[in-house]
């Protein structure tokens, strides 16, 4: 709500052509910055929130005054001196407020139980009459931010649910970005203060909300409520570390512990998460029931962002269990398509504060009702959900039967086109052709050179030319790629490009392909001096993992494949790590994979890779556990000019990550030594003479470019669990760690 200045003050004709000072006052952080006319943010800063928990000795009036002082102080700092335009300041605040008047009705997360109403606009205007002030609720600001996104322009409404220090929801009409409010109280969507009958572990629990009332949704399901539930259930669920009093005052600490327990698959953590998510699922069901025009529910906030896929899966489970009458039972994909999880940027509240001000009725920034519509408003928008499904089969000496079964199951056609690695073509090619012919197929065999040279422009062009010569079609010529990871990449990319995509089957013949490269969806070639510079996400129709191919694999490439198995084990499967450790003297021997333990290793590694990719096959989440060992490995591999294999480069990258984790006290030194010892036992290197620390850091900068602009460098806290991702690695820190590896000072 905007507060006009006194009549003798300068006229406020502000528009989006001028800078806009913006604030986001939350229960955890205070943020501020300047939003430029082009929508960019500058001079952004943040500080820990001053709230009743962080400053327990301050009274409510003192806490309110601290917010006013912070806003005025930062406004003076951010205001452009000498500007001829009147200053416009917009504030998003985590409080229930009257959207018509701007009066704060309750700010429990900031000022504690029994929070009293406060006229923040009046307090600011009394101190600075020369400023055009605007205050809005933080979830309203966030809803306005999302409503401006092009993907929602052709739906009537969306609802934004934020689960952070508190919980709230806003339904917003996309046309005009209007948030309907109660005509007198000016509120909407305060679902965090809906009373609930909370049940967990067979008992009813009553807790106090920040607002002072008992048994509100916030008391159980918010970032402030969950640690109280953890403490209450710690004894019953035999989780003593949940009783730590520090968890109640440190959101990062309780979230880290719960995320760890969820990553480790502890049933207690899963039961607790299901319990705290279910009441929210009930609120979402009610929302969708009474307002069928809501086309999307966007779930965001610190809690779902920190708990990641676990939170998403739990909420979808809760929604599916409750069901939406006569809707979800007729459409099994209804919830997965309606509920979207958005990892909104930290600065979304700052953008939203400005956008809400521009959308407010009477705002000088608001587009007149008769103004021409934007192109996005008068154009139709196409939206499709990408779906894929493919089977991965593990066998020994059964590739032909599995291939025939796959071809029949997918009904991809009677003329399979086989591209077989020349190194194995003589051994396996003729037998595969004759077996397919006996099954009624008419195959075409192509023997091709493999290795990194197959991931080039010329090799890709040769494959595409072969497609054209054969007359490959989508319905009659399934492509079968039989070879190592490089051949699978190149042939897979050709299949994705030709005729906008023809079906293909992957049959990896290397250990890397069997446990890692063969089971994902990425295909690529090297270009412009860079690894995997050109590629697609193009899943196969099926994958066949036959360990019999390993019998002809050279020893060094067996060792290279073991590096990827170690990577998978460290970030996702403790049992796989135990298998690797117990058989470290044999895992690079092809004969080992003819044993039960060898088959178990391949099956576990492939399954763990698929589990890590599940739900993120298209890499919407840029914090990928399988990136362990793949932050700077590309430059290590390329710099060696063929001297260093892919797996050897991954091993050096993993060693560097372990050393940085050791230096930061994130990775236990004993854990780092244990993993390095395993790598050494199987014959993997931990250092390289062919690349400098400066080259490594330059590569890390390049890597950040396809990780959303952040390094997202994985560090290991516990074996078999999701890594910790950091984005503040410095050149000096990396050089120090690399130097310690090279000299042996890192005990590695």
Q: How many angstroms does the end-to-end distance come to?
A: 60 Å
Strand content: 15-25%
Q: Name the average pLDDT.
A: 88
Helix/strand structural class: alpha/beta
Number of E strands: 24
Describe the overall structure.
With 748 residues, this protein is of the alpha/beta class. Helix content is 41%, strand content 16%. The protein contains 26 helices and 24 strands. Helix 4 packs across helix 12 (348-359) and helix 25 crosses helix 26. The longest helix is centred in the middle third of the chain and has 24 residues, at 267-290. The chain is globular, with a radius of gyration of 29 Å.
Secondary structure layout:
Layout (H helix, E strand, L loop, with lengths): L1 E2 L16 E6 L3 E7 L5 E8 L11 H19 L8 E7 L2 E2 L6 E3 L1 H4 L8 H8 L3 E7 H10 L9 E7 L3 E7 L25 E2 L2 E2 L13 H4 L4 H8 L17 H13 L3 H24 L3 E7 L1 H6 L1 H14 L11 H5 E3 L6 H12 L15 H4 L12 E5 L3 H12 L6 E5 H17 L5 E5 L8 H14 L8 E5 L1 H13 L6 E5 L2 H7 L4 E6 L2 E8 L4 E5 L8 H18 L1 H9 L13 H18 L19 H7 L6 H18 L5 H13 L11 H13 L7 E3 L8 E3 L4 H13 L5
Parallel strand pairs: 2-5, 5-8, 9-13, 13-14, 15-22, 16-17, 16-18, 18-19, 19-22
Antiparallel strand pairs: 1-8, 2-3, 3-4, 6-7, 9-10, 11-12, 20-21, 23-24
Helix pairs in contact: 1-3, 4-12, 7-8, 8-10, 16-17, 18-19, 18-21, 19-20, 19-21, 19-23, 20-21, 22-23, 23-24, 23-26, 25-26
């Amino acid at each position: 709500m905007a507060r006009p200045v006194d009549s003798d003050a300068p006229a406020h004709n502000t528009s989006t052509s001028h800078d806009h000072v913006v604030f986001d006052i939350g229960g955890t952080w205070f943020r501020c910055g300047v939003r430029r006319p082009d929508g960019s943010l500058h001079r952004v800063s943040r500080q820990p929130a001053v709230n009743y928990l962080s400053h327990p000795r301050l009274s409510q009036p003192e806490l309110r005054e601290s917010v006013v002082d912070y806003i005025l102080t930062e406004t003076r700092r951010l205001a452009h001196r000498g500007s001829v335009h009147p200053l416009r300041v917009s504030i998003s605040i985590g409080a229930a407020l009257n959207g018509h008047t701007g009066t704060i009705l309750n700010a429990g997360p900031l000022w504690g139980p029994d929070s009293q109403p406060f006229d923040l606009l009046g307090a600011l205007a009394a101190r600075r009459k020369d400023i055009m002030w605007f205050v809005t609720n933080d979830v309203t600001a966030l809803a306005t931010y999302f409503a401006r996104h092009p993907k929602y322009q052709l739906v009537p409404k969306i609802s934004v649910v934020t689960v952070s220090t508190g919980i709230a929801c806003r339904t917003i009409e996309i046309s005009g970005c209007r948030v309907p409010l109660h005509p007198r109280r000016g509120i909407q969507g305060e679902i965090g203060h809906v009373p609930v009958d909370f049940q967990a572990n067979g008992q009813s629990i009553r807790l106090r909300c920040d607002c002072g009332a008992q048994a509100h949704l916030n008391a159980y399901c918010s970032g402030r409520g969950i640690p109280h539930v953890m403490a209450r259930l710690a004894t019953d669920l035999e989780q003593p570390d949940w009783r730590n009093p520090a968890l109640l005052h440190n959101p990062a600490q309780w979230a880290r512990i719960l995320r760890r327990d969820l990553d480790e698959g502890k049933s207690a953590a899963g039961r607790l998460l299901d319990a705290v998510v279910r009441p929210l699922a009930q609120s979402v069901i009610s929302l969708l029931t009474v307002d069928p025009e809501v086309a999307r529910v966007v779930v965001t906030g610190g809690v779902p962002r920190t708990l990641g896929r676990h939170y998403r899966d739990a909420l979808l489970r809760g929604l599916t269990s409750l069901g939406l009458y006569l809707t979800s039972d007729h459409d099994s994909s209804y919830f997965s398509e309606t509920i979207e999880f958005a990892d909104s940027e930290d600065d979304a509240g700052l953008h939203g504060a400005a956008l809400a001000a521009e959308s407010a009725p009477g705002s000088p920034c608001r587009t007149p009702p008769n103004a021409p519509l934007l192109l996005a408003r008068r154009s139709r928008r196409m939206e499709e959900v990408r779906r894929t499904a493919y089977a991965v089969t593990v066998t020994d000496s059964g590739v032909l039967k599995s291939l025939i079964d796959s071809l029949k199951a997918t009904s991809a056609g009677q003329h399979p086109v086989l591209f077989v690695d020349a190194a194995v073509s003589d051994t396996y090619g003729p037998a595969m052709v004759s077996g397919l012919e006996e099954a009624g197929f008419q195959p075409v065999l192509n023997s091709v050179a493999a290795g990194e040279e197959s991931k080039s422009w010329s090799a890709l062009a040769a494959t595409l030319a072969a497609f054209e010569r054969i007359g490959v079609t989508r319905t009659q010529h399934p492509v079968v790629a039989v070879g190592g990871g490089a051949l699978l990449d190149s042939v897979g990319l050709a299949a994705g490009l030709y005729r906008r995509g023809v079906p293909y089957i992957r049959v990896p013949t290397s250990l890397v392909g069997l446990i890692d490269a063969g089971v994902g969806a990425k295909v690529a070639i090297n270009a412009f001096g860079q690894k995997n510079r050109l590629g697609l996400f193009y899943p196969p129709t099926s994958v066949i993992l036959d360990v019999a191919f390993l019998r002809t694999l050279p020893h060094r490439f067996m060792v290279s494949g073991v590096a990827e198995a170690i990577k998978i084990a460290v970030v996702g499967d403790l049992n796989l790590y135990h298998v690797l450790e117990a058989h470290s003297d044999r895992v690079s021997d092809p004969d080992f994979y003819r044993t039960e333990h060898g088959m178990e290793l391949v099956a576990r590694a492939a399954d763990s890779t698929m589990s890590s990719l599940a739900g993120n096959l298209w890499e919407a989440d840029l914090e990928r556990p399988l990136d362990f060992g793949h932050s700077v490995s590309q430059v290590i591999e390329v710099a060696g000019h063929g001297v260093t294999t892919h797996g050897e480069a991954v091993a050096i990258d993993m060693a560097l990550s372990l050393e940085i984790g050791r230096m930061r006290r994130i990775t236990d030194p004993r854990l780092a030594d244990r993993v390095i010892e395993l790598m050494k036992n199987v014959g993997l290197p931990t250092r390289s003479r062919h690349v400098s620390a400066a080259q490594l850091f330059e590569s890390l900068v390049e890597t950040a470019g396809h990780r959303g602009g952040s390094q997202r460098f994985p560090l290991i806290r516990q074996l078999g669990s999701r890594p910790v991702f950091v984005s503040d690695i410095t050149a000096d820190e990396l050089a120090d760690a690399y130097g310690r590896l090279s000299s042996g000072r890192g005990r590695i």
